[in-house]
Write the structure tokens for this entry.
Amino acid sequence: MKKIRISPPVAALILAIILFVLSGLLPNGYGSDLAVAKAQAVNIVRLAVFLGVIAAGQTLVIISGSEGIDLSAGSVVTLTAILTYVIVSGQNEKVLLALLVSLAVGAVIGLVNGVGITFLKISPFVMTLGMSGVVTGTIIVINHGNVSGKVAPIMTKLIARPLVLGIPGAIIIWLVFGFLMWLFLERTTFGKNLFAIGVNRVTSKLSGVNVIGTNLATYSLAGALAGFGGFLVVGNTGVVFIALGQPFLFPSIAAVAVGGTLLSGGKGSYWGTMAGAIVLTLITSLLTTMQMPDSVRRMVLGGTLLVLISIYGRQEALRQ
Amino acid sequence: MKKRWNWDFLMSRYPAFFPLLLLAVVIVLNLVLQPNMFDLETLNGNMRVFLPLILVSVGQAVVLLGGGIDISVGGIVSIVNTILATRVGLEGSPELMWRYVIISIVVGLLAGAINGFFIAFLRLQPIITTYATSFLYFGLALFILPNPGGGIPADIASLYRTSAPLGIPLAFYVIALLLLIWIFVSSTRYGKYLFAVGGKPEAAYETAVPVTWMQFSTYVVAGFMSALAGIALTMLSGSGNAEIGESMTLNSITAAVIGGNAFSGGLGGVAGPIMGALTLSFIQNIISFADIDTWWETLVKASIIVAALAAPGTIDLFRRRRS
């Protein structure tokens, strides 16, 4: 029997479009007003950018296998958002410095994760969870409840406002970013090695892949990407607070899963994660506009997520 | 191998050995900061606070042993708490309380069965599935009790808070019972199957182990333990709050891993995670007694936890380098 196979990224994207079209029928949806519909669609994609970028690092560590996961992403986002906010303090010329600091700080935290996981053999889930606590603790210590700073006008202009043809800069950044991620995963040796260690570390090692190096680099890179996410998030919100990044954490894992990347590693794509981020953002913003009580909203979100992963998140059957 | 009782042997044969060392260290530290720690009242005051996490950690440990993970346990704790706090009420009779205790346990079993159905029968990935169901469960808890409130009768709550038969706090009886049950279960066929399924499900399947049912059962056990934890937590706090279980999920996973259970499944037990949960709770205690600046608390606590997680690996690393 031959089954029709739609690749998960495409399926997620089709789902997003169907959901969006249906959302027009809601009482306070866009109705038949195309201009409003377009504005709404653009806005949802713009909001998905932040989740999408944060989920990029998550995609890498999940592909690397061996229960790879990065639970420190949320706190790294908060940390680099605060750092960016403080460093930039309203000056355009400091933006580049802030970006570099964000990437570097993220990479260092990621490297610590990688060292704990590869050399001390701590499972990624608890190692990154512990690091998340350490980073949050550090934020509390350096932050002491309040920070003074300001985002630069150029960041707001690039990230939050329409740039070309009414398309916000964030979306353009994301498209370029997505293309780079694709190049990185599919067209570099590192990307090939990453998939290889995700499938089987022993065979990759025997085939000459530097497993330890690849693993360390993956976690550092994931940290750096979370750092970049924090830089973008603060450019959008314009304010920082201690719980800024945490709400992105589990959705970033969900976005990866909805995009068809196997949580056991070795298989996946960043396109899928992008589609997953759009689907999740769409569902959350639809639920928000429907003005349901928080409790019902959570249940609907949980139910939808279950349905989504039931459709194509299934693992292979035991009986072969 | 010259000596039979060397470090490697202890570490591999008894996964609870290292957690026991850690626990001894934190108990000594705690004793220094809180000299009256072994007085019945203080001991009971500590143990009744620790017990809910211990219960959840045991459930989590069983799921981890079977090769899964359950991040919805906190949600189940919350549902049970809100059910008891709203349905029994401050003026409720003991009969009403016990009736809802039984209903709570059934709810816990059901919630676990839902997790188990999706993961074992539909073969969805555990992390993401229980993440989704945690939304369902927390949402349901919030639906039952939108704002913190409600409660259970004070005299029933004090049953949990103060009872210490034969001068030993209630929690120790519960722990002893859990350990006895575990010793029995791990010697049965179920226990052997559990390790087999967690270690290598494909191989277990090929040797006629009912993998699907085994995986399903671990989530039901976790649901049951979470319901017990929810009941204990409600009797401890005496009131209801839909967010009460939130911190339980990640703490129970950390406790199980500190307790020597492998994340990939098939390695560990229940004694280790109980010690892990105790260690985590004592660390919290130590921090509140050590008079640390409030701003530093989170950082210090997280660093200690990371150090505890890193300890076995670090020792291993140094031992390998020397030989």
Summary: Residues 50-304 of chain B form a domain with the ABC transporter involved in vitamin B12 uptake, BtuC fold (CATH 1.10.3470). Chain B touches chain A through 54 residues (CB under 8 Å). Chain B has a mean pLDDT of 86. Residues 94-121 of chain B form the longest helix (28 residues).
